[in-house]
Structures are given as C-alpha cells and as structure tokens.
Amino acid sequence: MSIVSVRGLSRDYTQGAVTVQALRGVDLDIEEGEFTALMGPSGSGKTTLLNQIGALDEPTAGTIIVEGKDLTTMSSGELSDLRLRRLGFVFQSYNLIPVLSAYENAEFVLMLRGEGAAERRKRVMDTLAAVGLQGMEGRRPSELSGGQQQRVAVARAIAGQPALVLADEPTANLDSKTGNELIDLMKELNEEHGITFVFATHDPKVMEAARRVVRLEDGRVAEDLRK
C-alpha cells in the first residue's frame, strides 16, 4: 500500500526575472515500510521533493497524497496537524533547541501533541535508549558530539511514532564511522518498527543501505531502482 503518491508534481521558484523549475511533473509512489533514497546532484530537486511530501512547501501543480489525504486540498491547520502527528523530520543541521536537554528536545513533539507526562516520559526514555543515548538525557546539544546531536534529532523524529520519516542529508555533517552508525540505526528502526524512511542524500553509504534508489535529474525522475 502506498503511503505517499505523487502525480504530476511541479514546483517553480521565481528569482528576479528568472523562473527556476525545481520539479517538473514528478510521478512517484512510496510504499509503507520502504527505506528509500532520493539521489541526484545539487539542484536536481531531491530536497524540494522531500519538502513537498513533508507539507513544508506548496506545489505549483500536481497532487501529493499522504496516507490517503490530498495535501493540496488541506488547510494550513490540517497540514500542521499532519506534520505533528504523522510525519517525522531529520535535518542536516540537526535543528535542535540549544537551551533544551536531549530529553526535552526528544519530548518536544509529544508536548505539542498534548500527551500526558507519564506517557511522554516512557516514550522518550525508550526512544533515547533505542538510539544509544541512555544516560545522556540531561545533556544539552552543546555538550553532545555531532553524531549524538543527530541521534537526538532521530529520537525527536520517531518519539511520536510517525508513519513516515523524511531525512534531508542526515549524514552530511558526520564522520564516516558516525554516519555509518546512524544509517544502521535508522535501518534497524525501519526493519523492527516498520517506520517508512525517505532520504535526500549524496552519501553513497545511504544509497547502498537503501532498498530503493530514486535518481532525480533536472527536476524529473531519471531512474528508479529497487534492490
């Protein structure tokens, strides 16, 4: 079953007098439980496509169906609720709140959802343990290595048990050993918990780990390989 279905998706940006076509009529289905990498050179449209699927940006044309809901017909409030309850995001720059501890960063989405304190604590402690940060719950981002900060970001993304996690260059700022450990972690979460992952990446290790690689070129799907 498709968790994401994109049809005729286009996104144009205006830069002065110039119109840039970031996406040009993309058709793509992502099945539940997939571990998929979007690859391509800078400017190919992979981050734009990820942002469209994540309801972070509006398309110029086309439709985006996520869990049976057409994002192009939803209100801003409905889109915010979808992002909060059904989607998880992992960014290249971590995007952690510097004044909050690892625990508080991972808890943040659950607080926004209004979940009870006892449920939040159990979920966050279990999630931080799952990403290898047991005992580091009280540390702020400045007290953590880059790899540990990215693990907090992954914990924040999955603590709410999303259906889909969208990761934009999650290994870009990490050394190869830490990057490999993060890939292994996300693969384990995918296999053991059924979370669907879609990555925008340049990293050959992510592409190697992915069970499907979609190559974008000039805003179009140039190749779609399943392993």
Keywords:
four-stranded antiparallel sheet, single chain, Rossmann fold, alpha/beta, six-stranded mixed sheet, 10 strands, 227 residues
Percentage of residues in DSSP E strands: 25-35%
Q: Averaging pLDDT over every residue, what do you get?
A: 93
Tell me the series of helices and strands, N- to C-terminal.
EEEHEEHEHHHEHEHEE
Largest sheet geometry: 6 strands, mixed
Bin the helical content: 25-40%
Low-confidence stretches: none
Q: If you compute it from the alpha carbons, what radius of gyration comes out, rounded to the nearest whole angstrom?
A: 17 Å
Q: In order across it, which strands form the biggest sheet?
A: 6-7-8-3-9-10
Protein architecture, described:
By secondary structure, the chain is an alpha/beta fold. It has one domain (34-59, 76-226): Rossmann fold, CATH 3.40.50. Helices cover 36% and strands 30% of the residues. It contains seven helices and ten strands. It has helices at residues 46-53, 76-86, 102-112, 117-130, 146-159, 176-193, 204-209; strands spanning 2-15, 18-31, 35-39, 61-66, 69-70, 87-90, 164-168, 196-200, 212-217, 220-226. The strands form two sheets. It has a six-stranded mixed β-sheet with strand order 6-7-8-3-9-10, sandwiched between helices. A four-stranded antiparallel β-sheet has the order 2-1-4-5, covered by helices on one side. Helix 3 (102-112) packs across helix 4. The radius of gyration is 17 Å and the shape is globular.
